[in-house]
Design goal:
Blueprint: E1 4-14, E2 20-28, E3 42-46, E4 59-60, E5 65-66, E6 71-72, E7 77-78, E8 83-86, E9 89-90, E10 95-96, E11 101-104, E12 107-108, E13 113-114, E14 119-122, E15 125-126, E16 131-132, E17 137-138, E18 143-144, E19 149-150, E20 155-157, E21 161-162, E22 167-168, E23 172-174, E24 186-196, E25 199-208, E26 222-226, E27 239-240, E28 245-246, E29 251-252, E30 257-258, E31 263-264, E32 269-270, E33 275-276, E34 281-282, E35 287-288, E36 293-296, E37 298-300, E38 305-306, E39 311-314, E40 320-322, E41 327-328, E42 333-334, E43 339-340, E44 345-346, E45 351-352, E46 358-359, E47 364-365, E48 370-371, E49 378-379, E50 383-384, E51 387-388
Parallel strand pairs: 3-5, 4-7, 5-8, 6-9, 7-10, 8-11, 9-12, 10-13, 11-14, 12-15, 13-16, 14-17, 15-18, 16-19, 17-20, 18-21, 19-22, 20-23, 26-28, 27-30, 28-31, 29-32, 30-33, 31-34, 32-35, 33-36, 34-37, 35-38, 36-39, 37-40, 38-41, 39-42, 40-43, 41-44, 42-45, 43-46, 44-47, 45-48, 46-49, 47-50, ...
Antiparallel strand pairs: 1-2, 2-3, 24-25, 25-26
Length: about 400
């Protein structure tokens, strides 16, 4: 069930002298007790559904605005007159409120709070129980965590780390590196160059600084590759293992695992206890979360959402492709090299096992649906709850329900 809808009310928001955005007011479709929201309550303003997850308790309230490619998810809240934009991510139990401004590729998570007139920019990260308020500015690649508090007119920038119970109320802090604390889960130990289209970027091998028993990781074990610590959260047991790689603005967080030769790129998010392994590639604005497990040779991109207890396991020499705005959730199973796209919904205990089939458009497969059509068959319409066992031609199906 969706968490919110658009009310039809819109407002033209002037971003700067040359850019304007039309933002849309939201309304709750269910109660969200942790934020005191009741079904029917009006919320804040977003550009589209990509800015606020429909599947958890995250909320945008009051006159707050979230737009461009920013995302609020998990149990986070943005409220009052706060603004979050560009590629910023607000998640976990984080709170952004007052007149706070969050812009850039910022990560705010854990139980952290940013409020009053604070500004957080660039690649900065605020997590743990940290608080940033007053007229403080946090920018570049600065990190504020543990129980640290930055307020007043403080300016923290470059690669500064502020942790422990530190309080900074004024002045500038640049490039201060404190001792490693329990809040820092990994460090970089090796780098390599990725070349693409005449350009290049560095990615870094990580090494665990603490045990992660859930995944058999010991302090000192080498992990996979990430472009920067905006790709892998320091809280929780999330880990990147083997030769897996996370780059661009992608994020692996909570207790998720990415391993094998998997690639998480662009703006994709893997969260909760999701597991990605094998040759899986996730990109675009795709989200993998809850207890979903994806293994083998799979390409996932666009705005695809895969969650619940879904299992996708493809061990053929041809990849499965999942893209567009499709949703796969519940206890669904995808077991072969199918192509799924459009607004398809596959859920409950539905199973797809037909090699080379294509499922697209507005198709819904649910309950105990079982689709096993052979290669080159296309399913572009229908609400299927049983076994799909007959077809007229490549485009028009007669559905037998069992």
């Amino acid at each position: 069930m969706k968490k919110y809808e658009f009310t039809g009310e819109c407002a033209l928001f002037r971003f700067d002298e040359s850019r304007y955005y039309t933002l849309y007011r939201i309304r709750a479709l269910r109660d969200i007790p942790r934020h005191g929201v009741k079904a029917g309550d009006l919320g804040g303003w977003i550009l589209d559904e990509s800015n606020l997850s429909q599947f958890d308790d995250a909320w945008v309230a009051d006159e707050a605005k979230v737009f461009e490619n920013a995302i609020v998810f998990g149990n986070a809240i943005v409220k009052d007159n706060a603004e979050v934009y560009w590629y910023s991510l607000i998640f976990g139990n984080a709170k952004v409120y007052g007149n706070a401004e969050i812009v850039g590729r910022v990560r705010i998570y854990g139980n952290s709070e940013v409020y009053e007139n604070a500004r957080v920019r660039d690649y900065a990260q605020i997590f743990g129980n940290a608080k940033v308020h007053g007229s403080a500015i946090i920018h570049n690649a600065a990190q504020i965590y543990d129980n640290a508090e930055i307020f007043g007119n403080a300016n923290v920038y470059y690669c500064s780390r502020v942790c422990g119970n530190t309080e900074i109320a004024s002045g500038e802090l640049c490039d201060r590196e404190p001792p490693i604390t329990i809040s820092i889960k990994y460090e970089f130990v090796e780098k390599k160059i990725l070349s693409f289209g005449g350009n290049f970027k560095y990615v870094y091998r990580i090494k665990a600084l603490r045990d992660i028993p859930r995944y058999g990781v010991k302090a000192g074990d080498l992990g996979g590759w990430i472009e920067g610590d905006w790709n892998l959260s320091h809280e929780g047991d999330a880990w990147v293992k083997d030769e897996a790689m996370v780059k661009d603005d992608a994020l692996v967080t909570d207790d998720a695992l990415v391993q094998g030769h998997a690639l998480i790129a662009q703006h994709a998010i893997v969260s909760n206890t999701a597991i990605i392994r094998g040759e899986v590639a996730v990109s675009g604005y795709a989200r993998i979360f809850n207890n979903a497990t994806i293994d083998g040779l799979v390409e996932i991109y666009g705005s695809a959402q895969i969650y619940g207890k879904v299992i996708i396991s493809i061990h053929h020499d041809i990849a499965a492709w999942i893209y567009g705005k499709c949703e796969i959730f519940g206890n669904a199973r995808i077991l072969t090299d199918v192509r799924i796209h459009g607004n398809v919904k596959i859920y409950d205990y539905a199973t797809i096992s037909g090699r080379g089939a294509e499922i697209m458009g507005e198709v819904q497969l649910h309950e105990n649906a079982y689709y096993n059509q052979s290669i080159w068959q296309r399913l572009s319409a229908g609400d299927i709850t049983g076994k799909c066992s007959e077809y007229d031609d490549l485009k028009n199906y007669s559905i037998k329900r069992s």
